[in-house]
Amino acid sequence: MDWQLLLLNDRVIASLVTALVGGGVVAAGWFWTHALSRRRDKLLRVERINDIQRALLAEIRAHVVALEGQRDAGGLQTLSQITDDDYLPILPHDANDRIFRAIVEEVHMLPEWAIDPVVRYYRLLAVRAALAQDIRSNAKDYPRRAADMFRDYLTLNEETLETGLDAMEVLTASLKGGASEVAAMLTRRRREVEGDLVADTPNRRSSDPRDL
Question: Rounded to the nearest 10 degrees, what angle do helices 10-72 and 143-199 cross at?
């Protein structure tokens, strides 16, 4: 067989060109479809992460507002009313982590700057709930011990409030502008703290979105 004549045959050349073009189109289509699929998955992941952050922010804010109300109402003054004989405040059976428990398997999706403050806040909620249960268990038979534990509970409330405000600030900044906004927020926060230390004035943050 004369290969040179075969290669110069118009039909052979046309078939070869058709095969090459067809293969190129198929390959290009595969790469394009793969790129679109990856882009869609990335957009869906970003949307899911933002949804999780919004949900956690709403849950944390709701509880922080309640803690602020207790502080503004003079919750620590309750200490002076605690006696071994006849008074121990009733602790509510509140559930402030329902959203977190619902998405706990997806927490790893959160940006690295958001995971730590969120986890610290919900860890304090768990400690707070356990301490409240211990107070209820000891209130009747060991009122003195329960009173001491209640003092710790009030201190823990204040720590939970501050940690919740930290988490709110980070989540708000993250939703607003990502890593750059979080870095800017932390810089502003550090300057505010340094300014308060120089002026010797307490820093009273608020859950009001205008203050975040």
Answer: 110
